[in-house]
Amino acid sequence: MRVIVSAGGTGGHIYPALAIINKIKEMEPNSEFLYIGTHNRMEKDIIPKYNIPFESIEIYGLNRKNILKNFKTLSCFIKAKKKCSKLIKEFNPDCVIGVGGYVTGPVISTAHKLGYKTFIHEQNSVAGKANLYLSKFVDNIFVSFKSSANDFPRYKTIYTGNPCSEEAIKKKAIDKTELGLNPNKKLVLFVMGSLGSDRVNNTLYKTMSSFENKDYEILFITGKSSYEQMSLKSYPKNVKVIPYIDDMTRVMKKTDLIVSRAGASTLSEIIALGVPSILIPSPYVPNNHQYKNALDLTSIGAAVLIEEKNLDSLNLVSAIDSIINDEIKIASMKEALKKLSVTDSATRIYKAIKEKCDL
Length: 359
Description:
Rossmann fold, 16% strand, seven-stranded parallel β-sheet, 359 residues, six-stranded parallel β-sheet, 14 helices, 13 strands
């Protein structure tokens, strides 16, 4: 199979794209890929590391604060479509898949105009603007949450879950001693993304002293941008502080409770691995989509939600203790997570593409 994949901007788009690529490689080892991403976002550094051919286009999202900048955005969009047309014709794919981010706009719309089979995947419970725009140009729309199916034409929308979930299940659990942790104690994992959140981290730091006499351990992942500042502070002996772990799912498999943001990929792994969670959605994302992602879990008792504006040491420690020390509560949350679990998401996407493309 010859496949063009486009996704960009954040790991929440890029890693599901990689999961789809990995599934196609697993099923058809001789497949060939071309990845089209932005010229200045993280995919330009991540994708080449996987030996996947990468082409970039200069493209920007709409600027709502400075409308004049949108003249450049429009100009870049037109130029990007011309470059995409050339790349797509030269590669001549069996299909073109968009996995989120404004970079997918010119890629998918151009591929559709050229007559190629096109697909998009929506990770969040609220559809992004790029995917809403592209929904009329694609053969199928894959969604991670059943609730987001309402945003798209029903006749071509397929509930697949997030392909990151299938990748997570395959991972080997980490040996807790590698991180200096006690394998016989329960673990609470704090993680606010690869870069972290200064505001939340400061609250978390103030909370750490409250864990001194607890019989569980804390792994506090500060994020790379916050680690230097946070590492200079003092912590109780049962608190381990590190900047980041690239393969977080290996740690999650040994985690009893996770305190995290509510990004789509993180939630897909929480669901797939059945990890009880306290979710602190980022309020700084489009359409407040992390909050709405979190509601899909909290509405059925699969997670606890604390909005960032309400976060303080007292309510956080209280929430942690009410879960970690209650085996019935943990079992109930795990059971609720099973209702959302899709263990073959990437496989569903692969099969749908094969069927639609008649390959």
